[in-house]
Amino acid sequence: FQTVNVLGVDFINTTNHDFLTQLKADSQANKNRFVVTANPEIVLAAKQNPQLATAIKSSDYTTADGIGIIKGAKILKTPLPERITGYDTMCALLDWANANQKRVYFLGAKPSVLADLKKKLAQNYPDLVIAGSHDGYFQDEGPIVNDIKQAKPDFVFVALGFPKQELFIANHRQVATAIWMGVGGSFDVLAG
Ligand code: UDP
């Protein structure tokens, strides 16, 4: 994708439809991918936090997740077509994973939310292969990273809030050839 720079971050210039087509192709081709869905809060935080800025730069796709980014791009006369949110992208990928026997790992949120999420997944995505899951309140990353590795997931959704989730993915994405995406509060939303 071509990109549009807003306040130092390069956003992919594409639609939800074309982005999903790309992610599905990447998954079929066994690519390792890191998706950041960035809102203005993240862009500003990256200005203060060099480690986060480096993590975002290391992503394969940074999407405009927030009307502020869309407005900023318009003002800069390099418009972006629409928002691409973590929640919408995750739900579309779950649909596809459900239909294509792809393995999904869920990392993050409170244990009770994760339990509710699994019930919702069973209802909404009955054929989904849950490769593994772990709540987001752990001390030691090592065992979690090892669990993800053993699970051999095709998709890893990480709901630790920003910037934790982006730093986690940037540091550990090599353990699984998967599409990795930080999804913020999406587990809570989907769990209802
Ligand atoms: N979260 C977590 N571990 C933490 C901090 C947050 O698993 O150490 C989870 C939290 O339970 C929620 C998600 O991260 O499910 C998103 O949190 P928040 O809404 O604060 O982040 P944002 O949506 O602003 O990225």
TrEMBL record:
GO biological process terms, semicolon-separated: cell wall organization; teichoic acid biosynthetic process
Span of the entire protein shown here: 4 to 195 of 243
Biochemical pathway: Cell wall biogenesis; teichoic acid biosynthesis
Stated role: Catalyzes the conversion of GlcNAc-PP-undecaprenol into ManNAc-GlcNAc-PP-undecaprenol, the first committed lipid intermediate in the de novo synthesis of teichoic acid.
Organism, scientific name: Ligilactobacillus agilis DSM 20509
MF terms in GO: N-acetylglucosaminyldiphosphoundecaprenol N-acetyl-beta-D-mannosaminyltransferase activity
Family named by the database record: Belongs to the glycosyltransferase 26 family. TagA/TarA subfamily.
Catalysis performed (reactions): UDP-N-acetyl-alpha-D-mannosamine + N-acetyl-alpha-D-glucosaminyl-di-trans,octa-cis-undecaprenyl diphosphate = N-acetyl-beta-D-mannosaminyl-(1->4)-N-acetyl-alpha-D-glucosaminyl di-trans,octa-cis-undecaprenyl diphosphate + UDP + H(+)
Protein's name according to its UniProt entry: N-acetylglucosaminyldiphosphoundecaprenol N-acetyl-beta-D-mannosaminyltransferase
Enzyme Commission code: 2.4.1.187
Keyword hit for Magnesium: no
UniProtKB keywords: Cell wall biogenesis/degradation, Glycosyltransferase, Teichoic acid biosynthesis, Transferase
